[in-house]
Known about the structure:
Layout: E1 16-18, E2 24-26, H1 30-51, H2 55-76, H3 81-90, H4 106-120, E3 130-131, H5 136-159, H6 166-188, E4 194-195, H7 200-204
Amino acid sequence: MVYLSKIYTRTGDDGTTGLGDGTRVPKTHPRIKSYGCADELGAVIGLAASFNQDEEMVELLRRIQNDLFDLGADLCVPLSKETTKEVESSAGESKAPAPKALRVAAAQVLRLEGEIDVMNESLKPLKSFVLSGGNAVGAHLHHARCVARRCERDVLALADIETINPVVARYLNRLSDWLFVAARFANQRDGSEVLWKPGEQQNEA
Length: 205
């Protein structure tokens, strides 16, 4: 349970911040960067939701925002030697008991894949790359897609130096795909999608 009675604490004035296990690290630490990026991603998705008139899509976006808080909580608590094996087992088909800390689960990745398949069924096959933009919803979703890719890179950089839940990177990878398809879905509804025309400006020179 989260209980916030006071917003500022002054404990971070020295340039450090506390992790979920009580450890204090510099605010520039790769772990802070990784879940800070997830927070930014959730904010951009919130922008997309605020412009969206499709109640079903808004519900999906709110669910993803919730997932991203799960993801941030996961990254905020480093894996201990005792829980590492359990987390690796939970990424597959094993019925190993869940670790005490909140961890992103494989089921959350599978849900994204199912939603991608449903949205993609109504889309025209691509014959070129898509330019980011279109209507307001589509533009914000494309922005979110770019942030999701950056978050994935930040998480993989953290994984190079520390052990993390492997499902986190998989979730972000799949989420960037989800956001790409969702942006196309939003833009094709009113014909706003714009395709890349290679070398078009060169021909006008």
